[in-house]
User: What shape does this take?
Amino acid sequence: MICAKCRSPHSEVVNTRTTRGGSQIWRRRRCADCGKVSTTYERQDLSYIRVVSDNDAITPYCRSLLFASLLKVIPDSSLTALDVENLTDSIELKIASLKDDMISSLKLRDLVLATLKPADINAFMNYLVQHNQFRTKTDINSAIKLY
Assistant: This one.
């Protein structure tokens, strides 16, 4: 880390904790040259993960796309941006726990739905309808029971 005050590249970690349910690491750092204390938040980089779509197209995983898709389905004033950020963190923890560098778009959708259902049922329903193709009411009911 480069010190914000003196621009020195030398710092030492004086305290570390996990935050946001283990999805981030909070670190308190002290500059070895000027003594300024600063705080950093670190999260795992999942850019190595590739998403395989239904038509076998492969795209890199993008946190901002996941965040935007969640934000899009959440009804106004239902959840805050911080809540959506926490949901995104929860989903990313589940993705990382798969320990694979490829994930199907169907598996990603399932992880999102499983995370959304207990958090906000309206957002869950909106996501379910937007990311599935239903033909009958029975299809919708069986999908709801699945998650």
